[in-house]
Automatic annotation (TrEMBL):
Keywords: Acyltransferase, Ribonucleoprotein, Ribosomal protein, Transferase. PROSITE patterns: GNAT. Gene3D superfamilies: 3.40.630.30. InterPro entries: AcTrfase_RimI/Ard1 (IPR006464), Acyl_CoA_acyltransferase (IPR016181), Bact_Acetyltransf (IPR050832), GNAT_dom (IPR000182). One of its GO terms (molecular function) is N-acetyltransferase activity. The lineage of its organism: Bacteria, Bacillati, Actinomycetota, Actinomycetes, Cryptosporangiales. This is [SSU ribosomal protein S18P]-alanine acetyltransferase. PANTHER family: AMINOALKYLPHOSPHONATE N-ACETYLTRANSFERASE-RELATED-RELATED. Pfam families: Acetyltransf_1. Residues 11-158 form the N-acetyltransferase domain. One of its GO terms (cellular component) is ribosome.
Amino acid sequence: MIRQAAPPGQIVLAPMRWWHIEAAGPIERDLFGDEEWSPGMFWSELAQVATRWYRVALDGEELVGYAGLCVYGPEEAWVQNIAVRRDRQGHGLGRRLLDELLDEAVRRGAQQVLLEVRADNGPAQRLYARRGFEAIGLRRGYYQPSGADAVVMRWDAMGAG
């Protein structure tokens, strides 16, 4: 059940709500496999309304992507996730979702935005770098159960135009 729809063929970004969780599941499984978020993790994130901010991308009634942000006061915010269905990748939707998160972080006064991205996910790292993120560290074995490393990246909101 989507409960809100965009005109078919036109992707609209909207607040993520509990009724989007089920539709996010297949995207999670396809993109993240054993490291997918469970429905309970999404429920937990959406319940933290003071610090979390989630968006979905809708094409008609189809959920084709989503992204989330966590803001810890004025010091920093963290990109929790960005996911775009495989057949919708490469058309700027990930960039649109990321830009929404960065705009919200700035609105909330965050001075920097951080994220972790798989070390073997070159396309995502390039997306973040094009938006001004810089690699600042490596978390070895961060992703479980695969043991894949995560690159930590930072965006300076104070230097953003």
